[in-house]
Design a protein that fits this description.
heterodimer; A: alpha/beta; Rossmann fold; seven-stranded mixed sheet; four-stranded mixed sheet; 7 helices; B: alpha/beta; TIM Barrel; eight-stranded parallel barrel; about 35% helix; globular
């Protein structure tokens, strides 16, 4: 059973449907006990970091997610859910994240250079870092495959955890992993067949 | 590298896709689900559904259809038609839409774009504008292009983007249906005015029109069309190969 955490942020319809299309059993839940009994956890998120972090904290689920991840349960953060895995975000002020992966979330506008639009929205190709073994999350996809992004902030200073980047002016963090904790800045549930293959790999971690 | 996007647009009335569609191997040419799957498997980067139903029954049917499409097709879905309130946003987002397109609803209620962007984020709000030349300027038309609002279009688009519209679909009524190519003059003016993604609509008659569009206006992010895709005059996989051969980044 995969617990997709519902903490009142964003639209979980497609995420749930995409896992189900793979034959995975899912539960969309905000119940700590259900999350504890699940085999895997997915932390979604759309919108503003401060608002999402406050909601996750208010429900007490931040502590549950951290405890489960630290106990070794596979966790996948998606988009804002991935950004929440980090220690800190600088999205309109400074806000604390879960701190499961070292690094910070910063606006992309100052780093991507002039002439590029913000948000970074659309399909972009994945590059895998040189000299690193391919992440198990990408077992069923290839470098250069395209995935769908919508974001204005990105994780920085997390080189050790980066398992894929996408170039938008400069290489931006596209996906991270640290042991059993995974995060994708892009939306696998909106990335067609490539995205489904990433979710399938997560189901097998 | 980020790609340019190719977006087929499907008009849905009473739960069925209107405009005759004739694809090989498609069992039911007016089934939104079958057609969406066909496009998703054949290179569409995104899908736009316009609900052109007038009745409440048809509207309920549309959300059923949307839910079924979103359960089966995992690429971005934009929904438009009959979006007049923030509750309308909630209704289609709950059924699996990723973005919501507003047109006449934003003209009737100038606060709608801002309210929706505040609740759901800029990335969720797509401004769709029907533009026609009138009185020596670009003019916004409402109600499916039947009514001249008297508003100058570039200023209107800029105001909506400032209020929170995250993308703009620019439909030129002057080139729509003519199949002589996109309205490059209008699109250039919009690209100069705003810094959010611009989606060109209206006028595509051939694959070459898309090459001209993206080569002439690097600021345009996507090309949207309906009939040339539905009637198979332009096949998306071949179109994308042609664009890529012309140096335009494409997901193929």
């Amino acid at each position: 059973m995969i617990a997709i955490i519902d903490y009142g942020v964003g639209n979980l319809f497609s995420l749930d449907a995409s896992f189900r299309s793979l034959g995975a059993e899912t539960v969309v839940t905000g119940d700590a006990e259900v999350i504890r009994s699940a085999e895997r956890i997915v932390l979604p998120g759309v919108g503003a970091f401060a608002d999402a972090a406050a909601k996750l904290h208010a429900t007490g689920l931040d502590a549950v997610v951290c405890a489960e991840a630290e106990a070794g349960k596979p966790l996948l953060g998606i988009c804002l859910g991935m950004q929440m895995l980090f220690r800190r975000s600088h999205e309109y002020g400074t806000h604390e994240g879960l701190g499961l992966i070292p690094g910070e979330v910063c606006p992309i506008a100052p780093v991507i250079g002039a002439g590029l639009k913000v948000p970074h929205i659309g399909w972009n190709s994945l590059d895998f870092p040189a000299g690193k073994e391919k992440s198990p999350l990408f077992r069923y996809i290839d470098e250069g495959d395209y995935v769908y992004f919508v974001h204005s902030f990105a994780a920085m200073g997390c080189d050790d955890a980066v398992i894929a980047t996408s170039t938008y002016g400069v290489p931006l963090t596209a996906a991270v992993a640290r042991d059993n904790v995974f995060g994708t800045q892009f939306h696998p549930e909106k990335s067609g067949d490539v995205g489904l293959r990433i979710l399938r790999a997560f189901c097998e971690t | 590298m980020i790609t340019k996007r190719i977006i087929p647009c499907l008009d849905v009335r009473d739960g069925r896709v209107v405009k005759g569609v004739n694809f090989m191997g498609l069992r039911d040419v007016s089934s939104p689900v079958d057609l969406a799957r066909y496009y998703s498997e054949n290179g569409a980067d995104e899908l736009v559904f316009y609900d052109i139903t007038a009745s409440a029954e048809g509207r309920a049917l549309f959300t059923d259809i949307l839910r079924e499409v979103a359960s089966n097709i995992f690429i971005p879905l934009t929904v438009g038609g009959g979006i007049n309130t923030v509750d309308d946003f909630a209704r289609v987002l709950a059924c699996g839409a990723d973005k919501v397109s507003v047109n006449s609803g934003a003209i009737r209620n100038s606060a709608l774009v801002g309210e929706a962007a505040k609740r759901y984020g800029d990335q969720c709000v797509v401004l769709s504008v029907d533009v026609k030349r009138a009185g020596g300027e670009f003019r916004v038309f409402a109600k499916g292009g039947r009514e001249d609002t008297g508003m100058e279009a570039i200023g209107w688009i800029r105001r909506c983007v400032d209020a929170g519209a995250g993308e703009v679909v620019v439909n030129s009524m002057d080139t729509d249906g003519v199949k002589g190519g996109f309205d490059l003059e209008l699109l250039a003016a919009v690209c100069d005015a705003v810094s959010v993604p611009v989606i060109a609509s209206g006028g595509a008659g051939s694959a070459e029109d898309f090459v001209t569009l993206f080569n002439t206006l690097p600021g345009v992010d996507a090309g949207l069309a309906a009939s040339i895709f539905h009637f198979g005059e332009v096949k998306i996989p071949e179109l994308k190969q042609l664009l890529r051969a012309n140096g335009i980044e494409m997901r193929v």
